[in-house]
Amino acid sequence: MFGRRHPAEDEGSVQPSEPEIREALGPEMTVLARGAQLDGSLVSVESIRIDGQARGRIAARGDVILSSNSQVEADIQAENVVSSGMLKGTITARAKTELAEGGRVEGEIRSKVLVVGEGALFSGQANIDVEEGPEEADRSAIPEDELRTDYEEAVRRAADWYRASLAGLAGADTDESTPDPSDGSLSRLA
């Protein structure tokens, strides 16, 4: 459904109609695969690529790329946003927003730079902060402590689930530090 990929592994997945998508994204990125659906929040300390369907909130310290297969209804916050899919929502990019060929965006865009490629459609309101300083641009981004808190919460829930599944496999007695999967405390992961 979604996982980590190195940019070199992704070379074959970029459609010929997406020449503007440059994946100089660092060592890793989170990928929501084609056919996958996400309803909720997706937060990453790296970059995110969406090939499937997403609804809710998407936040990345790096870039967010919406492929031509993506269908997204969300508020997006990232360094750069490149869309060649369908988006309904709000984009807050600290640096650049690019609507590539075939991309459709309906909503609001706040960015330092907005590029609308030939064949892209934009319906909504754009706020281009050309004269804004870097300190002001950072205020529109996700606060560092919020990103860290979301990440630490996800890691804690994953560790709780893992401990519970190990306890269930071992048939050991549960103590106070191991959550009991039958008490509903892990229902948030489903």
Give an account of the 3D structure:
With 190 residues, this protein is an alpha/beta fold. It has one domain (2-139). 17% of the residues lie in helices and 41% in strands. The chain contains 2 helices and 11 strands. It has helices at residues 134-139, 144-170; strands at 2-5, 29-32, 37-44, 47-50, 53-60, 64-66, 71-83, 86-99, 104-111, 113-116, 121-128. Strands 1, 2, 3, 4, 5, 6, 7, 8, 9, 10 and 11 form an 11-stranded mixed β-sheet that branches.
Largest sheet: 11 strands, mixed
Mean pLDDT: 76
What's the helical proportion of residues? 10-25%
Percentage of β-strand residues: 35-45%
What gap, in angstroms, lies between the N and C termini? 14 Å
Q: In the residues, how many domains can be counted?
A: 1
Structural class: alpha/beta
Total helix count? 2
**What is the element string, with H for helices and E for strands?**
EEEEEEEEEEEHH
Q: Care to count the β-strands?
A: 11
- The gyration radius over C-alpha positions equals 19 Å
Query: Which regions are unreliable across 5 or more consecutive residues at pLDDT < 50?
Result: 5-26, 133-141, 184-190
Per the principal axes of the C-alpha atoms, what is the gross shape? elongated
